[in-house]
Structures are given as C-alpha cells and as structure tokens.
Design a protein that fits this description.
By secondary structure, this protein is of the alpha/beta class. The longest helix has 32 residues. The two termini are 37 Å apart.
C-alpha cells in the first residue's frame, strides 16, 4: 500500500531525523503544530492541490537525444518537457560525456524554457557477463569550470571506447543481417514476402546517412539498433515484431500463417515458422555480435571519481529471472560505491518495483525514476511517464510524485 511504502521509505537510515534532547514538551508541540500549520496553508491555496497522480510527476531522470540513439534533439526534448509540465529533466545519453560548451548551451536552453536541465550518462556495462546499463548523474557544479576535470575527462575517454566498440558491433551485425535476409529463411521476415525480391544489402554508412535525414541521428558514431530498426521497417519492409521482440526472453518467435507473431510463453500451442528476432540481444549473442562494455564496478568507480552518483538502470530488462540472478549481487555493487537503483520506469511494473525497492532498502540505496524516452523510437516510453504503459498506474508512484523533484534538486545542487 502507499502507506506501507511511505513507512518503508521513512525507515531508511539516511532519511531519519536526529533526535533532540532539549525541552521535550516544547519540541513535541512544535513537531506536531508546524506540519499541521503547513498542511493547512497548502490545502487552502487555490489551484495547487499538490501531486495527485502519476500525471503530476514533475521530473524525468532518464531520456535520450539524437546525440546518442534518440530521434529528438536535446533542444526538442527540453521544449517538450516544458510543454508537458515537467520542472526538471535529466539528459542521459548513451556512452558519452558532452564537452562544456555544448553542456552550457543546453543549460541555457533549459533556462529559456523554464525547466531545470541536468546531465548524466548511461554507460553500457558488463554485469555478471550480462550486458546492461548503468546511469551516472552529475551535479551542476561539475560543469562550472573552464574545462572538464581530469577525472571527468577519464570517464569521457572510457565512454568513447565503449562507443567505438559499438561501431565494430554494427559492422558485424550488418554482415549477419545481409546473409540472413537474402536467404530462403529470410523471406519470412519481409511483409509482404515479395519485398525480398527488391532487397539491397545494408551498408553501415548508408544506414547512418539515412538515419541522419529520416531518424534524426546527429552523430554517425552514435548509430544504434533503434536506427537500424527504423531503416529495416521503412526501407526494407521488415516485420516490426521480428526486429527486437520482447526485451527479456530468448528472442525466439513463432510466425503463424495469418501473420501473427508470438514470443515466449505465448508460443505454446501455436503452429508456424520458428524465427529469431533479428536484433534481440540473445540472437546477436549467439553469434558473438557484441561490443565490449565496461565492467560495472569499474564504471561505478569512474562515475564516483568524476563527482557523480551511479544508479543501476531498469533492472527487469536483465531478463525474466533477473530478481533471482541479480538481486543477490546488489550488495557487492553497494560496497563498490553504487548510489541507487532505478525503481520507476517505462520498463518496470508494480511487482518488479516492489522487488527493487526492497533491495534498495536492504542495501542502503536510493531509488530514482525515468521514462527512458528515446523520442518516438520507443513507443512505450513517453517523456515524463515513469511506469509501464501496459500496466495499471500503481499507487506507490505517489512516492515519486511527492518526492522526486526534491531528490533531483538535491543531486543538482550537490557540491563536488
């Protein structure tokens, strides 16, 4: 229940207020009277009822732009965030640290739009031999100097190496796609199947050029799977359902005679062609098509040394058995300097939220919320929405509606 969650959060050691030893009676009166007075004043203010639902959440701590793998520019994300009523937005592009001039340019855009814009990074990491994402959040003071600090430059270089590794992955992936899509089995991926007759092999540079025009790719080195997805659908008539498939699971699908596609447990009893989702992580992994992410503890250390705070992103995307495999590993990350876990996200339903919150409490970690919006490339992840679109909005989200903006502000204002 909401009350239980509020009680649980209030019991976290870092949130407890110190006890006072002087004038117990007076202190007790003040403790009771002041909150009551504040509540009365707030409740009497016209037109300001306070956060009532998910729609009142005022901060999104996880979004992407064309400078990594989104299809909206940072300026467009800022304008949209302001339009939908957010007070604060964290831009967390993949595997990149902006230079100071660009960062300050976007801070100014935020001020003009009337929204607090802060910056983080989403680093691709290796966690127990599983590719995953680690968020790093940085206070505004990081960007105050004339140049990046030595530690921030070190993190910037490490992120650049990860991005370069992604380029190598793209070349391998294109070779695999060309071989499969030109084969007899590949015909099932086209809709209609006759579209295979017009198939022209993919070329990385051509896809990047197309994405700059049609999918708002700003930097060719940021070409990622979402851009390939758009190209496969729009230019090659590939069935959308057979590109990624569900993020968790094994990526195996059944295509039935009526053109329906089923994954995981939904495949049971279905007759049809067995296919692999083209760019599912399991599909690529079987072919050793992968890039070299940073070991997660190394990434946590680099973020901390640069003055940031490290947060594990959307844990359920680790797979359907993530809780059994990875929750027991969280204490080691906490000892290594992990600051928090993303507990509210477009990838997280109520059941998984409760698992994450319990793990955070047990390990003295904070919780954060972010949509993981990529512009229009992830249709289920809308800017400002921090719950799964296919699940009912659960009452525990009231915690983030009430406290998220304050916690975001605390991160922004922290001094190095």
């Amino acid at each position: 229940s909401t009350q239980q969650l509020a009680k649980m959060h209030s019991e976290w050691p870092r949130r407890q207020a110190p006890k006072k030893s002087s004038n117990r009676v007076t202190g007790t009166i003040l403790v009771i009277a002041i909150p009551v007075l504040v509540w009365v004043m707030i409740s009497l203010r016209p037109g300001d009822p306070g956060p009532q639902s998910l729609a009142d959440v005022k901060v999104d701590m996880h979004c992407h732009t064309t400078e990594s793998d989104g299809d909206r520019t940072a300026e467009e994300q800022i304008k949209l965030a302001s339009k939908i009523g957010l007070d604060a937005l964290w831009i967390t592009d993949h595997d990149m640290i902006r230079d100071l001039s660009r960062t300050k340019e976007l801070q100014a855009a935020g001020r003009k739009a009337g929204i607090a814009v802060s910056f983080g990074v989403e680093i691709t990491v290796d966690w127990a031999k599983k590719e995953h994402h680690l968020l790093g959040y940085f206070p505004d003071s990081v960007w105050d100097g004339d140049e990046l600090t030595t530690n921030m430059k070190e993190l910037q270089v490490a992120c650049a190496k990860v991005k370069s590794s992604r380029e190598n992955r793209n070349n391998q992936m294109v070779a695999y796609l060309n071989e499969l899509l030109s084969s007899a089995k590949g015909r099932s991926y086209f809709d209609p199947e006759e579209a295979q007759d017009r198939f022209k092999p993919l070329d990385v540079s051509e896809v990047a050029q197309w994405a700059q025009t049609n999918a708002n790719l700003m930097e060719p080195t940021s070409l990622g799977r979402p851009h390939f997805r758009a190209y496969l659908i729009q230019e090659l008539s590939i069935r959308e359902e057979l590109i990624f498939g569900p993020r968790a699971g094994d990526g195996i699908a059944t295509l039935t005679a009526d053109g329906s596609v089923y994954f995981d447990e939904d495949r049971e009893g279905k007759q049809g062609v067995e296919l692999e989702a083209l760019m599912h992580s399991a599909t690529l992994g079987k072919r050793n098509i992968a890039f070299k992410p940073l070991p997660i503890l190394d990434a946590i250390h680099l973020i901390n040394e640069a003055g940031g705070r490290a947060v594990v992103a959307h844990p359920p995307t680790l797979g359907s058995t993530w809780a059994e495999k990875f929750v027991p590993l969280i204490p080691d990350l906490a000892k290594g300097g992990l600051w928090g876990i993303e507990a509210f996200s477009s990838e997280i339903d109520e059941e998984n939220h409760n698992i994450i919150t319990k793990a955070a409490q047990e390990n003295g970690l904070e919780i954060t919320a972010g949509s993981d919006n990529h512009g229009t490339l992830k249709i289920y992840a809308k800017l400002g929405d921090v719950h799964r679109a296919d699940t009912e909005v659960y009452s525990e989200l009231e915690y983030w509606a009430l406290n998220g903006l304050r916690e975001s502000q605390n991160l922004r204002d922290r001094e190095l």
